[in-house]
Design brief:
The protein is 54% helix and 12% strand. It is an alpha+beta fold. The radius of gyration is 30 Å and the shape is elongated.
């Protein structure tokens, strides 16, 4: 099958022919392989292009880099037998055709030179095991040994060889199967899915960093819940993220059950994903109820309760981020804030939307208040349409009130007009409890609407509070 017309449509003809011409000049068979071929078929953009050379791939990469001239960068990785050619935004990866064998204790293969058939056989899925010739005489010829085109058309993820061997050799491929299914909206072939379940324990030899890389790709997908459902279905979730797995299921006492918090979480996640591509807000949605299993209690009067799950959940975030090898920086603190505050707007609606409560929420959420409201609105997953309508109308009221209070009081991210160092100077104090008490009193007075957020009012309030502590200006 020749797909040269498809290549022209994808505007890769110039690159393919340039590489093919160089391969011809050194009498080398060369093929574009893997993801770029799959993405051409699906009419998806591809960031980089992988080439397989039947022979030394580094030699071909060096020749291609020379042919491209000034401004081309060549990176050679001799230990892996690969090379990368970069020019502008274009990235070309070269490797020699190879065959692989594995030691059960490692996913790092023993590599030997091989044929194109060997190279395509070692690949993870049929949709990634297609190759297109770039040599002049056979330009555009498709090599599809495992009927990857049919699987693309059917929307199926399937291994080219025995899936038990494929996943046992390199357990990361189990994560990749689920990630591709999520990204592409494909189904995993039943025998392949069953093999993932049988080999799930093998994931333990994969580094946390590689697992998290796949999870981030799942979270950036249009419908990330697909991936998390498959992780739970195959038994992988319990092994890589036990805290999330603990959300699964419903317990019933005296005929009263709580909702399945795992399914609820996935619904919230997809609703957030439909509104924003911000991956950290998506993680906030996934983790917003993470403490419900550890706070779940049965109360004979109230039924099932999850008191303080937001506060305890926020305390769990640093440990989870550390385990996941996620950044322990402002991104972690952002997720922590979202988890801690996600009940506050609901409480506002239930207890009454006072100016004081609005000011405190604006202050605590700061610039992330819009994200917080997006999360809170997504958290409404009731099947009662009237109840959902009522909640959304209440949240709309909260949003309007926030706009009014912010326009009037400028509370978001505010700092009191009189700071701690000025309090120490006024009263001749060293750092002490009294300084903290006075500073907090000013802040509370502004948030509670006792005084306006202005310096003159804050100074007058400070003097009255200090007198109560027996302090006077020096």
């Amino acid at each position: 099958m020749n797909i040269s017309k498809l290549i022209i449509q994808r505007k890769k003809e110039k690159i393919f022919k340039a590489v093919g011409s160089v391969a011809d000049s050194i009498s080398r068979e060369c093929y574009a392989v893997g993801g770029c071929v799959r993405d051409m078929m699906l009419d998806r953009p591809s960031v980089d292009i992988d080439f397989v050379s039947v022979g030394n791939g580094i030699e071909l990469a060096e020749a291609v880099a020379r042919s491209m001239g000034k401004g081309t960068h060549l990176n050679v990785f001799r230990n892996f037998g690969t090379a990368q050619v970069k020019r502008g935004e274009m990235e070309l990866e070269f490797v020699g055709a190879r065959k692989e064998s594995y030691d059960r204790q490692s996913r790092n293969p023993i590599v030997e030179d091989g044929t194109l058939h060997d190279d395509l056989s070692r690949r993870d899925f049929t949709i990634n095991a297609m190759a297109v010739s770039v040599n002049t005489a056979t330009f555009g010829d498709l090599i599809d040994l495992f009927d990857g085109i049919s699987d693309l058309k059917a929307g199926i993820i399937r291994t080219p060889l025995d899936p038990d061997i494929t996943f046992s050799d390199d357990p990361l491929r189990m994560m990749r199967a689920i990630r591709f299914a999520t990204q592409l909206g494909f189904e995993i072939y039943p025998a392949t899915l069953e093999a993932i379940t049988r080999n799930a324990q093998r994931i333990k030899i994969i580094t946390r960093e590689r697992i998290m890389d796949e999870l981030m790709k799942i979270m950036r997908s249009a419908c990330p819940s697909l991936g998390w459902r498959l992780l739970e279905q195959t038994g992988l979730l319990q092994l890589i993220f036990p805290e999330l797995h603990a959300l699964c299921g419903v317990e019933t006492v005296k005929g009263r059950g709580h909702k399945d918090n795992f399914l609820h979480t996935l619904e919230v996640l997809d609703k957030v994903a439909a509104k924003t591509g911000d991956v950290w807000l998506r993680w906030s949605a996934l983790l917003h109820d993470i403490a419900k299993p550890v706070t779940k209690r049965w109360d004979n009067s109230l039924g099932w309760t999850f008191h303080n799950h937001n506060f305890i959940g926020s305390k769990m975030i640093p440990r989870i981020f550390r385990q996941m090898k996620f950044p322990m920086n402002d991104r972690m603190r952002y997720v922590q804030k979202m988890v801690e505050l996600h009940m506050r707007p609901i409480a506002l609606v239930e207890e009454g939307v006072t100016d004081s409560a609005i000011r405190r929420l604006l202050h605590d959420a700061g610039n992330d208040i819009t994200d917080l409201m997006t999360l809170c609105e997504a958290d409404i997953t009731s099947k009662n349409a009237e109840k959902v309508k009522r909640h959304l109308e209440n949240f709309a009221s909260v949003r309007r009130k926030m706009e009014e209070v912010e326009a009037r009081d400028h509370i978001r991210n505010f700092q009191p007009p009189v700071d701690g160092s000025e309090i120490m100077t006024i009263f001749g104090l060293q750092p002490s409890r009294e300084v903290g008490v006075l500073k907090q009193a000013i802040k509370d007075a502004i948030l509670d609407g006792v005084i306006p957020n202005e310096r003159e009012a804050a100074m007058e309030f400070l003097l009255s509070q200090a007198a109560g502590l027996g302090l006077s200006p020096v």
